[in-house]
Amino acid sequence: MKKFVTFEGIDGSGKSTISKLVSEKLQSAGYDTIWTYEPTDSTVGKYVQECIRSQSDPFITSFTFIADRILHCKQIKQWLNEGKIVLCDRYAESTYAYQAAQLESELKNPLKWLQELSENRILLPDRTFLFVIDPKTSLARIQHRTELIPFERLAFLEKVHMNYLKVSKGKRFLHLDATQPIGTLVKLCYDDILR
Ligand code: TMP
User: What is the rounded CA–CA span in Å between residue 19 and residue 35?
Assistant: First the structure.
């Protein structure tokens, strides 16, 4: 059984909807489950949201996302010690995928740089689900949102998508076709967590 599980994917991939439904299903089955997310609602997390809105310097954005996560990990550790299952909507791979796309013209190897900054400072999930979807399809899904944030543009999301595929190799990751019906995706995640 997996205890710390993260949900990743580009904007519009459906991971928030699915992770919430999986959390409810686990809770209904009697598993003490916490659903949490990043950026968090902490003071640092709120500052991160401001960095995105104001298209702040990508280094500031990167450091702040990582600081928000290091703080969040203290809380996650506590929940795990209490025996809870923790589901987190976005985590480290979001920073690798999005901030590496932002930093590609600033650094030779932004992915490596971001991974080294995080290494040994954050918890390693037992499972990371990657919701894989073509950026054009995901953008079409979120067009109705009244206020699209600066990251929700096709060229940028294409880069984020490629970065996600690069960083999600290894047995911690499970790639899911995000265009499958919601019920199928919820069941796939639920069964995998309990396995
Ligand atoms: P959300 O739509 O899941 O609330 O996330 C807000 C945006 O923040 C989304 O476009 C992805 C972005 N983001 C990063 O760029 N880096 C990160 O580390 C995280 C957690 C989110």
Answer: 8
Tokens linked to 72: 């969040």
Q: Give the number of the atom of ligand 1 that is nearest the alpha carbon of residue 95.
A: 18
pTM of the model: 0.97
Q: What residue ranges define each of the domains in the chain, with the CATH number in brackets?
A: 4-194 (3.40.50.300)
Residue appearing with tokens 């984020």: 160
Which secondary-structure segment (H or E) carries 25?
Answer: helix 15-28
Structure confidence by residue, pLDDT tens digits, 125-161 = 999 999 999 999 999 998 887 677 777 789 999 999 9
Task: Determine whether the shortest distance from the Cβ of 151 to ligand 1 is under 6 A.
Answer: yes
- Residue 53 CA to residue 34 CA, distance in Å, equals 28
Local structure of 33: helix, strand or coil: strand
Mapped onto helix, strand or coil, the DSSP state of residue 106 is coil
Write the single-letter amino acid at 36.
T
* Atom 18 of ligand 1, nearest CA residue: 95
